[in-house]
Amino acid sequence: MKVLIATDKPFAPEATQKIQNIVETVGHTFEKLEKYTDKSQLLDVIKDANAVIIRSDIIDEEVMSNAPQLKVIVRAGAGYDNVDLKAATARGICVMNTPGQNANAVAELVFGMLIYQQRHGFDGSVGHEIRDRRLGLFAFGHVAKMVAKIARGFDMTVCSYSPILTHEDLRKEGELGVLPAYNAKDLFEKSDIVSLHMPLLDDTYHCVNYELLSLLPEDGILINSARKEVVNEDDLIRIMEERPKFQYITDVKPDKHDEFIARFPKCYFATPKKTGAQTSEANINAGLAAAQQIVDYFEKGDDRYRVNV
Asked: How much is the pTM?
């Protein structure tokens, strides 16, 4: 079987080498396409691939139609909205992700961005501490659980809301000292800072709107390490116009980035490029998990992390 890494944003070299070792040790062939600049390059190299490991790369109907032997796609990370799941299912392709492998890296970034912004980019002016602030976690998956653990170390009060919370989740919340919120409105009312951790789905598109944002205090903070589309940017701009101390901190550059920069230079921060999972450790964790999932799929039919039906 040919296993391809196709990433315009490469894995760390150490991660790539370990992925190659996992693949070749069991007799598969390995190929990589890194830092490609045009879709035609991907179309050319994927045409005889049986499996592909991607990051934020787009795998759509055109790519799949050009890969007749493709059997499995693994997104090295949690989110998978960059893969056309319906097209994959129609072609009998298994799509998997690697949940939890990047969680610590993203959680640490949340606090790195928050502290950086609260200290005004370390420009020497008087900033603010995060101790005793109320942190709300919108969704309670792997990343949010890590954020909760770190937040407790800062003596923050933490609450969370997820529409799919199970009894096990609630138990884990209690162990982490996390208070449950019973709906999104309840979460925002209980929080000074809200950190977003939901996937992009039909019902999460623009789910963070004016109604919810208005429930935060005048100096409220919204942190987004999820997807830009979960925030209604027009509503956020309206809130920031009305509340000069309201802040938006994001690892996913919004469509209206230039407007945010121009109008709210002191209350807005966005990373130049999505960087939540950009650590050597996260690269290794997610890459190796992806490679092992492919090996297990071909050897055992193991598809426990399948995200399409």
From this structure: 0.90
Residues 6+ positions from 1 with CB-CB distance below 8 Å: 28, 29, 50, 51, 298
* Residue span of the structural domain in which 183 resides: 103-270
* Per-residue pLDDT, 163: 82
Specify if 38 maps to a domain.
yes
DSSP 110-137: HHHHHHHHHTGGG-SS-----TT-EEEE
Strand positions, DSSP E, the chain: 2-7, 29-34, 51-54, 72-75, 94-97, 134-138, 157-161, 178-180, 193-196, 221-224, 247-250, 268-270
Same structural domain, 72 and 17: yes
Residue in this structure with the two tokens 């809301």, named with its chain if needed = 161
308 lies in some domain? no
264 in Cβ contact with 236 (< 8 Å): no
| Ranges in the chain, pLDDT < 50 | none
What tokens were used for 250? 């994001």
The Cβ of residue 308 has, within 10 Å, a number of other Cβ atoms equal to: 18
Q: What is the CATH number of the domain that holds 259?
A: 3.40.50.720
Q: Which tens digit of pLDDT belongs to each residue from 21-42?
A: 999 999 999 999 999 999 999 9
Is 306 a domain residue? no
Angle at 151 between CA 145 and CA 157, to 5 degrees: 105
Which one-letter amino acid corresponds to residue 242?
E
Residues with Cβ within 8 Å of 187's Cβ and at least 6 positions away in sequence, in order, are 136, 137, 138, 159, 160, 161, 181, 194
Give, as one character, the DSSP assignment of residue 229.
G
Which of 195, 239, 246 shows the shortest CA–CA distance to 219?
246
